[in-house]
């Protein structure tokens, strides 16, 4: 499975070890940690219970952008409804989607106490939501990862390999460069309120996320932005 598990700002190293064990059980080995409070750590090794190889290969990065740079599809695991609604799937639906995806996918999990922020979610294209009991919805981090990893495992066993796309899908790094270009042009043209650009930019991110643009699409869009801006400045 070409799927990465990303943990953002994990506070307890034991949870990292438990996640490593959970994903190795399901055939996943790609683990990336964004600013963990403590890692490496003896508690992580102890809780990994034999998944030391996953911990040894785990990448530690300074930002979610770095964790997702080479991915072409990212899911944010969230237990909270958001003001701006994003496409939201249960783990089984998300896993089926990932199994059909030709590029590298990532599932992103937030800090144990607060979860992912709106800024984190804006870096993803979909939400994955575990439909737990409404009167007790909170899951331990490793339990949540285990649920999603199990569904990814089932989907990979039941699904034929995806066909190669007509053009490579745009990576997260390419998309972030496009969003930065788009925001600059919209600010310069005074379409965006410079004091509060985030709300509209989140909606625009959601719009393009639905399309999963490939590299050709992004090149065309950036070419359009450059041409329009050059024309405006004449």
What would the keywords be for this entry?
seven-stranded parallel sheet; 12% strand; globular; 234 residues; single chain; alpha/beta; 10 helices
Account of the 3D structure:
There is one protein chain. This protein is an alpha/beta fold and 234 residues long. The chain is 48% helix and 12% strand. It has helices at 13-25, 42-48, 52-57, 64-68, 91-99, 118-122, 141-158, 172-188, 198-211, 215-233; strands at residues 3-8, 30-34, 59-61, 73-77, 88-89, 105-109, 126-128. Strands 3-2-1-6-4-7-5 form a 7-stranded parallel beta sheet. The longest helix is centred in the C-terminal third of the chain and has 19 residues, at 215-233.
| Low-pLDDT regions | none
Number of helices: 10
Strand content: 5-15%
Give the mean pLDDT.
91
Order of SSEs, N→C?
Answer: EHEHHEHEEHEHEHHHH
**E-strand count:** 7
Derived from helix and strand composition plus strand pairing, the structural class reads: alpha/beta
Radius of gyration, in angstroms, nearest whole number = 19 Å
- Taking the alpha carbons of the first and last residues, their distance comes to 50 Å
Level of helix content? 40-55%
- Neighbour order of strands in the largest sheet: 3-2-1-6-4-7-5
Choose one word for the global shape: globular
Give the biggest sheet. Answer: 7 strands, parallel
Question: How is this fold's topology laid out?
Answer:
Elements: E1 3-8, H1 13-25, E2 30-34, H2 42-48, H3 52-57, E3 59-61, H4 64-68, E4 73-77, E5 88-89, H5 91-99, E6 105-109, H6 118-122, E7 126-128, H7 141-158, H8 172-188, H9 198-211, H10 215-233
Parallel strand pairs: 1-2, 1-6, 2-3, 4-6, 4-7, 5-7
Helix pairs in contact: 1-2, 1-7, 5-7, 8-10
């Amino acid at each position: 499975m070409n799927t990465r598990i990303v943990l953002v700002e994990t506070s307890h190293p034991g949870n990292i070890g438990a996640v490593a064990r959970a994903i190795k059980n399901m055939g996943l080995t790609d683990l990336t940690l964004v600013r963990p409070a403590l890692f490496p750590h003896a508690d992580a090794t102890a809780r990994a219970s034999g998944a030391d190889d996953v911990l040894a290969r785990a990448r530690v990065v300074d930002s979610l952008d770095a964790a997702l740079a080479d991915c072409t599809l990212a899911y944010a695991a969230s237990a909270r409804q958001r003001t701006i609604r994003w496409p939201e799937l249960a783990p089984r639906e998300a896993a089926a989607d990932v199994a059909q995806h030709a590029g590298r996918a990532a599932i992103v999990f937030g800090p144990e106490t607060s979860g992912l922020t709106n800024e984190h979610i804006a870096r993803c294209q979909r939400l994955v939501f575990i439909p737990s009991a409404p009167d007790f919805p909170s899951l331990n981090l490793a339990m949540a990862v285990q649920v999603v990893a199990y569904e990814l495992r089932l989907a990979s066993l039941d699904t034929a390999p995806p066909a190669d796309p007509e053009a490579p899908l745009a990576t997260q790094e390419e998309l972030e460069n496009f969003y930065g270009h788009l925001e600059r042009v919209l600010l310069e043209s005074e379409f965006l309120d410079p004091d509060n650009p985030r709300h509209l930019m989140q909606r625009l991110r959601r719009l393009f996320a639905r399309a999963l643009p490939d590299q050709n699409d992004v090149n065309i869009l950036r070419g359009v932005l450059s041409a329009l801006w050059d024309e405006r400045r004449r």
